[in-house]
Amino acid sequence: MKISHMEKRCLMPIQLKRGQHVNLNKESDKLSILQVGLGWDSIDENYGILAKLFNKGELDCDASVIMLDENDRLIDRSHVVYYGNLVSPDGAIIHQGDKVDGKGDGDKERITIDLNRLSDKVKKIVFIVSLYGCENKKQHFGRLKKASIRIVDMKSMKEIINYNLSEEYYGNTALIVAELKLAGGSWRFSAIGDGTNDCSISRVVDRYR
Questions:
Q1: Is the dihedral of CA 100, 193, 24, 41 positive or negative?
Q2: 60: nearest Cα among 144, 122, 127, 121
Q3: Whole-model pTM?
Q4: Does residue 104 surpass a pLDDT of 60?
Q5: What SS3 string covers 17-31?
Q6: Distance from first CA to last CA of the chain, Å, rounded?
Q7: Which terminal Cβ of the chain has fewer Cβ within 10 Å, N or C?
Q8: Cα 94–96–98 angle (5° rounding)?
Q9: Domains in the chain and their CATH numbers?
Q10: Which H or E run contains 94?
Q11: Torsion of Cα atoms, 117 then 189 then 26 then 9, to 10°
Q12: What is the pLDDT of residues 27-85, one digit of tens each?
């Protein structure tokens, strides 16, 4: 069976660039459960024994979610979902675990979001990627070859958003990748792509206190 050009367009995810926004509810009917996949590759995944001796082995990247209120402030510490707190207080956001070495293609870490279970307090969700142990290892995202985030509607299994970060992040140790914001009853996805010099997820969280 042949697929028409229009049908192919419907099957393809929207490719976003930094600073662009899209209304997710307009892209997928009865949106409820999302899977957020974050991926990255370093330019030197096969650094070898000498590199590891000097703490320059593979980048240990961690994906995190920060849940904010209507004033863009952190609701409380329990509303940071990361490798040390895999489930949000309302059970709506589940982090599927830390992949330490980050090797292999595709998503490195995945996060599931049930929009219908989110607390009424939650008005914005921020997606972060940070470098674990970057101070001791003297690492930064200048060694990042590529990074991406994609959104899948789990009901239809359709990938609706794909954002590839194409900027240079030399010297940065954390990335504010994207945001989901509730406005007018709809969820809007924004491609942020901002690099920071925060050396831990706690430092990034401090920006939203």
A1: negative
A2: 144
A3: 0.85
A4: no
A5: CCCCEEEHHHHCCCC
A6: 54
A7: N
A8: 125
A9: 14-206 (2.60.60.30)
A10: strand 93-95
A11: -130
A12: 887 899 999 999 988 776 544 544 444 545 667 889 999 999 999 999 999 999 999 99
Q: What are phi and psi of 50, to 5 degrees?
A: -60, -40
Alpha-carbon dihedral angle through residues 171, 45, 65, 88, given to the nearest 10 degrees: -150
Cβ atoms 151, 188 nearer than 8 A: no
> What tokens were used for 144?
């990042």
The residue written with tokens 């299994």 in the block is 157
**Tell me, what amino acid is at 43?**
I
| Angle at CA of residue 167, ends 162 and 171, nearest 5° | 130
- Give the torsion sign (CA, 102, 21, 86, 168): positive
All residues at 6 or more sequence positions from 84 whose CB lies less than 8 Å from its CB, including other chains: none
pLDDT at 193 over 70: yes
Q: How far apart are CA 16 and CA 162, in angstroms?
A: 6
State the amino acid at position 206 in one-letter form: D
Please count the residues of the chain.
209
